[in-house]
Amino acid sequence: MLKEYIKIFKVESICCNMDNFAKKVYFYCKKVPRGKVTTYGMIASCLGKPMSSRAVGGALNKNPHAPEVPCHRVVGFDGSLVGFASGVKERERMLREEGVEVVGGKVDLERYGFSLNR
Q1: Which of 24, 68, 75, 91 has the most Cβ atoms closer than 10 angstroms to its Cβ?
Q2: Which architecture, in CATH terms, is 2-112?
Q3: Annotated active-site residue in 15, 29, 46, 71
Q4: Does the predicted model carry a pTM greater than 0.90?
């Protein structure tokens, strides 16, 4: 419990220096559990900006505190492992390590998708 508090405190204190949009993106990204993924569009919708999936990607591309904010768990609308600051192969490795199956550069959203609208 203490470790989790320290992680959250570390991320929240770093987030104080970011713009509000990025803070909100990171907030939703942190909700995606290990072994699951969500999409850029899902986060954009949660922010009330459903047409802003590219902006979500831009904020995640500048994520200064991965893996506390697990941006590798955010994929394209069809499960594609699109753009990742450390490279798509690294994203695939990280997801596989969490038990997520990647086939042909895609994740099955029916099986591994996590809805943030719970």
Answers
A1: 75
A2: Orthogonal Bundle (1.10)
A3: 71
A4: no
